Backbone:
């Protein structure tokens, strides 16, 4: 019995390949950020599926979509990475600093040495996804002979150009052959060496600030006491949701409590989460409105009600907050009261206002929409 035929740790047959790519952050579940990566995955899965294979019972490939935070989906991806035969990485400008991609590779490299006929480090297949400045981005990609367009433009450009369809298919054919040979232990490992991780650059902060309501003195009954104790937990849960929607490739997230004496609010883009009892309290609410009047537009307030009521912006409750300029609503919306949509809009407004004031150039690559499925 060969190592490839032994029982996998998950009890399921492995995939021939897993396609790893950078994941732009989003909390908007309707925005498809991985259209081109997904399209290439489906084309590559088709090519591998059409090749003669010694293990046709194996799944062809696996792909992690962007913006899918479900626990069930994440668990399925982790199980696949624990047994997948070949790790195909779409090397882009942001790939080496992407936390999701780094975690995927780490799980893959922890596979037992006896699971496949080659060690995990010999089953890495890095692909030139986009051409990046300098030579560093090309040092760790698989060379593909007889397709000069691949080295000149990268795979994403070939996939988008109708006139380069022949070159695109030749790249896919080469990658498909390489995947099957590596997975089945034939031929030599690819002549590529994965570069060491680059030192992490210092990133500016995005502040997620919370303001809790004043403690209720001596609650009369246990129901009031329980309701009072739940508010900080709800505030922390929403703060974690906001932190999860911030672009970690650009910002480090700082979680702060204004009640702890934090006095730096307004220096960096921020979302200020205010417990509703603090907002409606006569004294605290007046102080809070005075504070907001003196803060720049890149500090975006959100009201956090008790219980299961949705998070909302203050203006939606009839209490106006002065804005420096009109702000457009997000282009893609799920529902007006969807909490993730409200959070995404607040983060987007904070970053846009800060960038507009500080003249930071931003890139918004167009991303079409698709109803394709993540697994073949």
Residues:
């Amino acid at each position: 019995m060969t190592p490839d035929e032994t029982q996998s740790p998950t009890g399921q047959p492995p995939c021939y390949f897993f396609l790893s790519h950078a994941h732009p952050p989003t909390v908007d579940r309707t925005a498809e950020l991985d259209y081109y990566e997904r399209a290439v995955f489906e084309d590559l899965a088709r090519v591998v599926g059409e090749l003669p294979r010694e293990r046709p019972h194996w799944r062809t490939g696996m792909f992690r979509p962007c913006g899918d935070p479900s626990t069930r989906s994440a668990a399925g991806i982790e199980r696949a990475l624990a047994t997948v035969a070949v790790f195909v990485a779409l090397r882009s400008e942001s790939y080496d600093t992407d936390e999701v991609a780094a975690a995927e590779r780490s799980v893959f490299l922890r596979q037992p040495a006896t699971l496949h006929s080659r060690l995990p480090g010999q089953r890495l297949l890095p692909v030139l996804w986009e051409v990046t400045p300098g030579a560093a981005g090309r040092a760790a990609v698989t060379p593909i002979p007889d397709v000069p367009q691949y080295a000149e433009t990268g795979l994403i450009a070939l996939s988008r150009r109708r006139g380069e369809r022949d070159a695109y298919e030749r790249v896919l054919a080469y990658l498909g052959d390489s995947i099957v040979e590596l997975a089945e232990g034939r031929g030599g490992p690819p002549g590529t060496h994965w570069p060491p991780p680059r030192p992490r650059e210092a990133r500016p902060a995005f502040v997620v600030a919370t303001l809790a309501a004043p403690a209720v003195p001596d609650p009369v009954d246990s129901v009031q006491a329980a309701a009072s104790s739940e508010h900080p937990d709800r505030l922390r849960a929403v703060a974690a949701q906001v932190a999860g929607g911030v672009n970690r490739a650009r910002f480090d997230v700082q979680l702060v409590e204004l009640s702890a004496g934090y006095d730096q609010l307004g220096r960096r883009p921020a979302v200020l989460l205010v417990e509703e009892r603090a907002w409606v309290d006569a004294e605290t609410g007046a102080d809070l409105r005075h504070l907001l009047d003196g803060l720049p537009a890149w500090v975006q307030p959100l009201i956090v009600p008790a219980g299961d009521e949705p998070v909302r912006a203050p203006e939606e409750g009839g209490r106006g907050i002065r804005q420096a300029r009109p702000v457009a609503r997000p282009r893609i919306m799920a529902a007006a009261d969807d909490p993730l949509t409200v959070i995404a809009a607040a983060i987007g407004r904070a970053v846009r206002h800060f960038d507009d004031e500080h003249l930071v150039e931003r890139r918004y690559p167009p991303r079409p929409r698709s109803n394709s499925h993540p697994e073949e």
Observations:
- The mean pLDDT is 77.
- The CA atoms of residues 25 and 247 lie 5 Å apart.
- The first strand starts at residue 15 and ends at 20.
